[in-house]
Amino acid sequence: MKLSSVLSVLLSFAIVSQAVPMDLSKRRFGVEHTPEADATFQDVKDLAQGSDKEAQAGNLSGAMVRALLAKAPACDQQDRADDVIDLGRQFGGDKEQQFIKVAQTYRQLERNTPNAGQASELCTKPPRNKELDGLTQAQDPTGKAKDPADTGKAKDPADTGKGKDKAKDPADTCTCKAKDPVDTGKAKDPTNTGDNPANTGDNTAETNPVGGVKMPKIQKQNGEFVVNGNSFKDVDAAHGRQCDVQHNLCFNKFNAGDKSFSGADCDNQTNVCKSGPPVFA
Length: 281
Description:
The structure is a single chain. The protein is mainly alpha-helical. The protein has two domains: 28-128; 148-275, no CATH class. The chain contains 13 helices and three strands, in the order αααααααααααβββαα. The chain has helices at residues 2-19, 35-48, 54-66, 76-91, 93-107, 147-151, 156-160, 162-184, 188-193, 196-199, 204-207, 235-255, 263-275; strands at residues 219-221, 224-227, 230-232. The chain has a three-stranded antiparallel sheet, covered by helices on one side. Helix 2 packs antiparallel against helix 3, helix 2 (35-48) packs antiparallel against helix 5 (93-107) and helix 3 runs antiparallel to helix 4 (76-91). The longest helix has 23 residues, at 162-184. It is globular and about 60 Å long. Residues 1-19 form the signal peptide. Keywords: Signal. This is Late protein.
């Protein structure tokens, strides 16, 4: 009788397991505890250690974790990044700058979503601190193409014939711009020497931006290239950042309801931007 009971239980478990398949491979959870994310939580606590702000930093660190969860409101991550900078302001000096860098890194972390490939909702309100201007969370790389489809608005411009016009503008100009540096062989020289004015205006993503959304310009400070408060040793990395920031701002405007262009136009423009020269202030 005992053996029969055991076999019955095992058989029942097997039937239930087959009846309720576990599709865990398609979930997009756990990004709130990547090494990069955990480092920002710990940095906030470490920077406040030994001060009267330790408890405040500990509470904020926990709130930062919760803001990356799938059910968190769209602007929670940005609000917590603002809180990190606000805390840094109370310290001032070098520590303030360290808090700002932590906040900028944290603001660009990927958030959890219920499904792999699903884009997390973007925050449409501006941040309290200018150091976070143009920064948004990273998206699941496999879901980037789904952003316009999720809003249901990507097809509207195509129906009116406007979407095609917008989509062609970057492509038409991109072909010309891509050949200019190759033909002359001089487009990269100003970048290498820091001759900023020669590059300004050569990038179509700057002179004719989709939706009128401008990219942040690169500033050269103390031998480094700075974009929106982020410093880079290499101009190519700074150029990539200015294109990515413009892409995020473009999508923000699209998701806010601007139907004069599509999400695909934002993607196309990023390719145009990165194939062109960097744009300096």
